[in-house]
Amino acid sequence: MLGEGFLGTAAPRYADLVLLLEIGMGLALLIGAVLARKRMFRAHARCQSAVVLVNLAIVLLVMVPSFHVNVSPNIPAKLGRAYYRLPTVHAALGSITEIGALYILLVAGTNLLPQRFRVTNYKLWMRTVLVLWWLVLILGLATYLRWYVPGVFRK
Amino acid sequence: MPRRSVWLAGLATSVLTATLLLLAKPSVTANTAQSSTAEVSIDNFSFRPQTLTVAVGTAVTWTNRDDIPHTVVSDNGVFKSKARDTDEKFSYTFDQAGTYPYHCSIHPKMTGQIVVH
C-alpha cells in the first residue's frame, strides 16, 4: 500500500485508494438522499449507515495516524502554510461531521439514546451533515492536491 | 647581542615554528574531510542529481528545497530520515561500497540512488 499510486500523481497507493473511496462514499450519500426523497427509507438507512461506518474505519485506520505523524507536530507553528492548514481544517470539520453523522445513526436507527438526547427534526440534521460532508470532502481533495501534485496551492 | 643570546633566540624560533606546524596539521586533515562530502537537492518532487557517485567514506547531505516535506529512505533499510521540511537537511556517511537506491516515503515516485565505489 506504500508503493506508487495509480492516479498518476506523486501519492502512495493507499492515498489514491482513500481518495477514490471518499469520492465514492460522497456520491453514495447523495444517492441515499435521493432514496429518502423516494420514500425508500430502509434502503436510505442502509446506504447512509454503511457510508458513515466505513468512513469511520478509514478515519481511524488511515487518516488519524497520518495526521499524527505529518501534521500535528507542526501545529500551530506552521498553520500559515497550506500544506498544514488544509488537513487541519479538514480534520476539525471532518471530526464534527463524522460525530454528527454517528449521532444521527444512533437517533434514527437505534433506541440507545434516552429521549432527552434525541432530536426530532431529522431532515435538518441530515441535510446539514450532508452539506458538511461534501465540504469536508472538498477540503480532503484540496489536501490531496497540495500534498501530491506539484505546484498546487503553493503557500 | 651576545652570541649565546642569538643562539637561544634561534632555538626558540625553531621550536615555535615546529609547534605551529604541528598545530596546523589537524586543519589540513579537516580540509581533506570536508572535501569528501556531496550534496543532493530535493526540489519539485525530485532528487537532484537522481544518481550520485561518491567515494567510500563520503557524507552525503540531502537538502529539501521544496515547499513541502519529504523523506529520504533507503530501499534496503540502510538509512531513513524523518520528514524534512523546507531547507532542512539529512546526512548519511557511506562507509561501504555499493549501490544504495532510495525514495521519499511520502511520495514513492520520487527515487534516487547513491553509487559508492
Q: Can you characterise this structure?
A:
The complex is a heterodimer of chains A (155) and B (117). Chain A is globular, with a radius of gyration of 17 Å. The model of chain A has no long low-confidence stretch (mean pLDDT 94). Chain A is an all-alpha fold. Chain A has four helices and no strands. Chain B is an alpha/beta fold and 117 residues long. Chain B is elongated. The N and C termini of chain B lie far apart (62 Å). Mean pLDDT of chain B is 81; it is low at 20-34. Chains A and B meet through helix 4 of A and loops of B.
Record field, number of beta strands of chain B = 8
Kindly report the average pLDDT value of chain B: 81
The level 1 CATH classification of the largest domain in chain B is Mainly Beta
Q: Name the quaternary structure.
A: heterodimer
What is the string of helix and strand elements of chain B? HEEEEEEEE
Broad shape of chain A:
globular
> What integer value in Å does the Rg of chain B equal?
23 Å
Short synopsis of the structure:
Chain A is mainly alpha-helical and 155 residues long. Chain A has helices spanning 13-37, 41-70, 82-109, 122-148. Chain A starts with 12 loop residues before the first helix and ends in a 7-residue tail after the last helix.
Summarize the helices and strands and which ones pair or pack.
The complex is a heterodimer of chains A (155) and B (117).
Chain A lengths: L12 H25 L3 H30 L11 H28 L12 H27 L7
Helix pairs in contact in A: 1-2, 1-4, 2-3, 3-4
Chain B lengths: L2 H33 L1 E7 L2 E3 L2 E4 L3 E7 L8 E2 L14 E6 L3 E6 L7 E6 L1
Parallel strand pairs in B: 1-4, 3-8
Antiparallel strand pairs in B: 1-2, 4-6, 5-7, 7-8
